[in-house]
Specification:
The protein has about 210 residues and is of the alpha+beta class. Strands 1-3-2-6-5-4 form a six-stranded mixed beta barrel. A four-stranded mixed β-sheet has the order 10-7-9-12, with no helix packed on it. A hairpin with a 6-residue loop joins strand 5 and strand 6. The chain is elongated. The two termini are about 30 Å apart. About 25% of the residues are buried. The C terminus is likely disordered.
């Protein structure tokens, strides 16, 4: 997984006045948890642009002017309710031998024949939570829908790997094609899709209850 470098300064004072002064100067107060003790630092708001304003998942290399350097992932972020400016970010420190939980985006690839025949593509899970060692974290899940016909779905079961654990039931539907009024079911789709349609309908009800 690609790492984004954030350069900042360690914070000696973490009181309200010091935090307000940082924000007025265009800095974002941050804290890194997971180590021996919390690490407080600040960085320019622009430094977080490629980390925050993207659908992709990234790890972070935090480099502070005092020489401290840690690897982390973003855990929580707070925005100003009016201006949408970043006002605080929490990070969690990474260790090479320690499992970490992270949300990984799902990317769809190909054109579904079911959609071409008028079916509705339902993208149920745009991100999947996984648990893995930092070196095993994938950039994204690449899901090929080029063979997905009307009534069929792709579930978590087909995305399993020895490199990580997906923290969702294997039956969880990621993407499916449902019948629409204008849909045209070909002979091949009717033959292959009837059994799959029952599974997709059941998964749809399950997703609706979540």
């Amino acid at each position: 997984m690609k790492a984004i470098t954030i350069k900042g300064s360690e914070r000696e004072s973490v009181g309200k006045k010091a935090t307000k002064a940082l924000r007025n100067a265009g800095k974002v107060p941050c804290v890194v948890y997971g180590g021996e003790k919390p690490l407080h630092f600040s960085a320019d708001e622009l430094a977080f642009r490629d980390l925050v304003y993207t659908p992709n998942a990234h790890t972070v290399a935090i480099e502070l002017d005092g020489g401290t350097s840690v690897k982390a992932i973003m855990q929580d972020i707070q925005f100003h309710p009016v201006t949408d400016a970043i006002i605080h970010i929490d990070f969690y420190q990474l260790f090479d031998d320690k499992m970490v939980t992270m949300n990984i985006p799902v990317s769809l690839e190909g054109n579904s024949p079911g959609v071409r025949n008028g079916g509705r593509l339902l993208f149920r899970k745009r991100k999947l939570a996984i648990k893995a060692l930092p070196s095993k974290l994938p950039d994204f899940f690449n899901v090929d829908i080029s063979k997905l016909k009307i009534g069929q779905n792709i579930s978590v079961a087909s995305l399993m790997s020895e490199d990580f654990t997906i923290l969702h039931p294997e039956s969880q539907v990621v993407v499916q094609v449902k019948t629409a009024r204008t849909a045209v079911v070909t002979d091949d789709e009717d033959e292959d899709g009837e059994e799959g349609a029952e599974g997709a309908e059941g998964a749809s009800e399950e997703a609706a209850q979540e």
